[in-house]
Amino acid sequence: MRDRLVDKIEYRNISHFEFCCRWVEIYLQAHIRRALNLIEGGLAELRADRPIIAALCARALLEDGAMVWHFQRR
Question: Where are the domains of the chain?
Answer without folding.
Answer: 37-74
